[in-house]
Design brief:
single chain; 3 domains; binds flavin-adenine dinucleotide; FAD/NAD(P)-binding domain; 16 helices
Length: 494
């Protein structure tokens, strides 16, 4: 008899767990509450336009352990076209000054030095630290299952970045920018407005640019939905069992051992192992009823800062809007859009580089801005409807200012709020990437297993501050590696 693993949630983490479970001969069932898989990695179609919710960049498009995962799970194959943008983002401050973030570090360094020649030495130091991050070698195996010889070898190779870990692992960007000592006020103002205004990890900031510089964080043509569909096909193609529109209410635990799940219609699904790849907070506090709290888990959910929830306003435009860069951001404080007063401004993404997003000769523009969960949590249905109308109107007015005359060409305006995200994925407080990577947690994570609860593992973005698709995919794989160890099986990716 094959052992059965039931996996709660069909996002990227759940799909990954399902695929590796099948590759290792387990009977695997994914139980997903929405009608489609993908979780936050999704998109929706409106009047011929596709509005993507997730994929800007995928770490691992070129090499490394994440690349292995994307190939093993069907995300990448030889038919998937990858785009590496030259410009990451073009920013404007409230005085209309422009600032460009290039993905190529040499180019960015030259640009920054010409932007602030008086800070050239400090800029070169920052870019060199970013280059050193290229030595980072993410582990392919989870803690406890790493080959000791390989671990030591990679630690030696990672030596230059170990120094960065020691220097900046527990520091935020505010500290880092001041330590570098930028004197050009405009330069400092731009860095501060993007990362310095909150406790955003200095190390996360430094490392992010190494991925782009290595052309290892590209965009996949087609975006999020086909990515999730390829994983789903891989899972079902391997004989995995997918149950959608099925919400798990409870994880069955007997004698401190997970035995299966109970759905909202009281259906019981028995299993030998349970992997929860659903929202971390609801797994711990609802499905397990808070009975298996550790000090670490309680501390993290009480104290670690969350990603601020987003509002996404997607526009289908009946003409081509030319652009040379994917994202432009306006760092304006105090702009009212509906009830939200922006703190970090808003961005507009133009999908000109992906022909699958709009019919020929047309364009998709997507505005995103951060909001506060408190604005949404108690809103009544009538207020919610009015708020969405107001957002539609305010966002259109902003777009009209930036692209005079565009209003006449807008065919569709679609507003997705934090409540949309919560409704379809259950993500806690709309924190779409879980915990913000900060000076307090960048060197930390939540364990995938809970002491005292047997045959149960967690996967997904909530285990790793910073979240995102790579940790989601990797944690699904790791959960199955641990189960293989329990079963005395050699883990296989074929
Ligand atoms: C606007 C936006 C842009 C982003 N851009 C990027 C990017 O460019 N690169 C990147 O790496 N990441 C990006 N992310 C983050 C990325 O989408 C997420 O970190 C990742 O998809 C999380 O995957 P997950 O499987 O851990 O969780 P989720 O996607 O949240 O999946 C959880 C799944 O569990 C299901 N579920 C929850 N509760 C239950 C239940 N009780 N019963 C059954 N099913 C349940 C949900 O419906 C969902 O399908 C972005 C996210 C957003 C919103």
């Amino acid at each position: 008899m094959k052992k059965k693993i039931v996996i709660i949630g069909g996002g990227v983490a759940g799909l990954s767990a399902g695929i590796y479970a099948r590759l290792n001969g387990f009977d695997a069932e994914i139980v997903e509450m929405h009608s489609v898989t993908g979780g936050q990695c999704t998109a929706w179609d409106r009047k011929g336009y596709r509005f993507d919710y997730c994929l800007h960049w995928l770490v691992g498009t070129r090499m490394g352990p994440f690349n292995d995962i994307w190939r093993e799970t069907g995300v990448l194959n030889n038919d998937v076209r990858i785009v590496d943008h030259d410009v990451h983002t073009k920013l404007y401050d409230s005085d209309g000054r422009e600032f460009i973030i290039y993905t190529d570090l040499n180019r960015w360094e030259e640009y920054l030095c010409s932007f602030a020649p008086e800070d050239a030495a400090k800029i070169r130091k920052m870019c060199n630290e970013m280059r050193k991050s290229a030595f980072l070698q993410p582990y392919s195996d989870p803690p406890g299952l790493r080959n000791p010889v390989k671990s030591v070898t990679s630690l030696v190779k990672m030596w230059p970045i170990m120094l960065l870990f020691a220097k900046y692992g527990k520091k935020d960007c505010n500290y880092y920018f001041r330590k570098l000592g930028f004197t050009n006020k405009t330069l400092l103002g731009f860095f501060d407005s993007i990362y310095g205004s909150r406790d955003f990890s200095a190390l996360a900031f430094i490392m992010m640019f190494a991925w782009f510089n290595q052309k290892n964080a590209g965009y996949l043509i087609g975006g999020s939905l086909p990515m999730a569909q390829r994983m789903t096909q891989r899972f079902t193609g391997l004989g995995g069992n997918l149950t959608t529109r099925a919400r798990v209410n409870k994880i069955i635990v007997e004698n401190d051992t997970a035995k299966g799940v109970i759905l909202s219609d009281n259906t019981r699904i028995d299993a030998d192992y349970v992997i929860s790849a659903a929202d971390g907070h609801s797994t711990i506090y609802d499905m397990l009823e808070g009975k298996y709290l550790t000090k670490k888990i309680s501390y993290a959910y009480r104290n670690w800062e969350l990603f601020a929830p987003l509002v996404q306003v997607s526009f289908g435009i009946r003409r081509k809007i030319e652009s040379e860069n994917p994202v432009q951001a306006w760092l304006v404080k105090d702009q009212m859009i509906g009830r939200t007063k922006t703190i970090n401004g808003y961005s507009i993404m133009n999908y000109y580089y992906d022909p699958t997003m709009a019919p020929a000769g047309k364009s998709v523009l997507v505005m995103r801005y951060e909001t506060q969960w408190d604005t949404w949590k108690d809103i009544t249905p009538d207020e919610y409807k009015m708020e969405k109308d107001q957002i539609r109107s305010d966002a259109t007015a902003i777009l009209e200012k930036l692209y005079p005359g565009i209003t006449a060409d807008i065919e569709v305006v679609d507003v997705a709020t934090p409540l949309t995200d919560v409704k379809y994925t259950g993500v806690w407080k709309g924190a779409y990437e879980g915990f913000m990577p900060s000076s307090k947690n960048m060197m930390d994570n939540i364990n995938p297993f809970i002491p005292g609860l047997k045959k149960f593992y967690m996967a997904g973005q909530w285990l790793f501050p910073g979240g995102g698709l790579p940790p989601a995919g990797q944690s699904g794989k790791w959960a199955v590696q641990y189960i293989c160890r329990e079963e005395g099986k050699e883990f296989s990716v074929r």
